[in-house]
Design goal:
By secondary structure, the chain is an alpha/beta fold. It has 2 domains: 239 residues, QueA-like (3-Layer(aba) Sandwich); 75 residues, QueA-like (Thrombin, subunit H), CATH 2.40.10. The protein is built from 8 helices and 17 strands. The strands form 3 sheets. It has a 9-stranded mixed sheet. The radius of gyration is 20 Å and the shape is globular.
C-alpha cells in the first residue's frame, strides 16, 4: 500500500490543544453495521464481563532537557531523550546538533552533566554523570509539536500521564489511556472484566514519520516491552478460555502481538524488544477489541488502526469524526472498535 492511502485533511481547529476532562471525552463506537457517538463515561458498558482489558502502564519521563549554552551560544542546547541504552546512557535528539561534538560535556545543573559519546546526524549518544533524579526536577514533559505552547506548563506532568502510569521510561504517553479515571477503572472491574497491565516504553519508533511512498519499505525503531509473570498467566488463561482481549491503545496492541509471536501462540513473561509494524493484511493473533485515539494522517498509528478495523471502515470513521467535530491526536477524543476485520 502507499503512504497516501492513509492521508486525510484535518482542520487545524480539530487538533486538541488542551486535555479533555478525564472520563468525559467523546467516544465513537465503530462496528461493521454502524457508527455510534457516545461519551467515554459509557466505556465500561461496552465491554463484556468475560473480556480482559489490557493497559500499558508505562510512565512518561520529562524527557526534554536543556543544557547550558556552549561557547558563543546564547540559547541553551535542547535535547529529547529517545532511547535508554543502559542505566546512565541515552540516545537523544539534539538541537542545534551542529554545535555538539563527540567528547563534549553538556551541563544541565550543578548535579547533572553528560558527555557526548557519539553523533549520527541529529541524534547524539549521551553518558550521564551525577544525580539522574535531576531529570524529574528539571526536565520538561515531551508534548508533541502539534500542541502549540509558548512554554511548558507544570500541569502537563499530570495531564500527559495516565492515572495508572507506573513504570518510568516512555517519552510519550499511551494516549488512549488518558481518558480513564480511577472510578471508570473501578466500574470496569465491577462488571467482572479482568484488568491486566503490561509495559511498553513508548519511544520514537511509535511516532517516526513514514517517509517512503511504499509502506512496506518503512522500518520501525526498536522499543522495549515487559510482561510480568502475573500478566502472562492472566493472558494465557484468557486465551485458553476463549475470552476476548481488549487493548487500550496501539502500544498495547504492538506489545501483545509481538509477545504472542515470540511465544509461538502463548504470551511469555519477561522483557523483550519489538519493531513490529502493523499494516493492513496483518494477521491479529492476540487482540480482539481496540480503544484508540484519532491519529495523524500517514502515520504508523493510523495504519495499525486500518489493519484492525479495515481501511474503508477507518476512512469512514475518520470522515465522520471530522464532520462531527471530534478532537484529534494526543489530547483528543477516542474511538472504540469492538471487533476486528481480520
Amino acid at each position: 500500500m502507499k503512504r497516501s492511502d492513509f492521508s486525510y485533511d484535518l482542520p487545524d481547529a480539530l487538533i486538541a490543544q488542551e486535555p479533555r476532562e478525564r472520563g468525559r471525552s467523546r467516544m465513537m463506537v465503530v462496528t461493521p453495521e454502524a457508527i455510534q457517538h457516545r461519551s467515554f463515561a459509557d466505556f465500561p458498558e461496552q465491554l463484556d464481563p468475560s473480556d480482559v482489558l489490557v493497559l500499558n502502564d508505562t510512565r512518561v519521563i520529562p524527557a526534554r532537557l536543556f543544557a547550558q549554552p556552549k561557547g558563543e551560544m546564547t540559547r541553551p542546547i535542547e535535547l529529547l531523550l529517545t532511547r535508554q541504552l543502559d542505566a546512565m546512557t541515552w540516545e537523544a535528539w539534539c538541537r542545534p546538533a551542529k554545535r555538539v561534538r563527540p567528547g563534549d560535556e553538556l551541563r544541565f545543573s550543578d548535579t547533572l552533566i553528560a558527555h557526548t559519546l557519539g553523533k549520527d546526524e541529529g541524534t547524539v549518544t549521551l553518558r550521564f554523570e551525577g544525580d539522574l533524579a535531576e531529570i524529574e526536577r528539571i526536565g520538561v514533559m515531551p508534548l508533541p509539536p502539534y500542541i502549540a505552547r509558548a512554554e511548558a506548563r507544570e500541569s502537563d506532568r499530570e495531564s500527559y500521564q495516565t492515572v495508572y502510569a507506573a513504570e518510568r521510561g516512555a517519552i510519550a504517553a499511551p494516549t488512549a489511556g488518558l481518558h480513564f479515571t480511577r472510578e471508570i477503572l473501578e466500574r470496569v472491574a465491577a462488571r467482572g472484566v479482568e484488568i491486566v497491565r503490561i509495559t511498553l516504553h513508548v519511544g520514537i519508533g511509535t511516532f517516526k514519520p513514514v517517509k517512503v511512498d511504499d509502506v512496506a519499505d518503512h522500518r520501525m525503531d526498536i522499543e522495549r516491552y515487559e510482561i510480568s509473570e502475573k500478566a502472562a498467566t492472566s493472558l494465557n488463561r484468557a486465551r485458553d478460555e476463549g475470552r476476548r482481549i481488549a487493548a487500550v491503545g496501539t502500544t498495547s496492541v504492538r506489545t501483545l502481538e509481538s509477545a504472542i509471536r515470540a511465544g509461538n501462540g502463548t504470551f511469555p513473561a519477561g522483557r523483550s524488544d519489538t519493531s513490529i509494524f502493523i499494516t493492513p493484511g496483518f494477521e491479529f493473533r492476540a487482540v480482539d477489541k481496540l480503544l484508540t485515539n484519532f491519529h495523524l494522517p500517514e502515520s504508523t498509528l493510523i495504519m495499525l488502526v486500518s489493519a484492525f478495523a479495515g481501511v474503508e471502515r477507518t476512512r469512514s470513521a475518520y470522515a465522520e469524526a471530522i464532520a462531527q467535530k471530534y478532537f484529534f491526536y494526543s489530547y483528543g477524543d477516542c474511538m472504540f472498535i469492538p471487533s476486528r476485520t481480520s
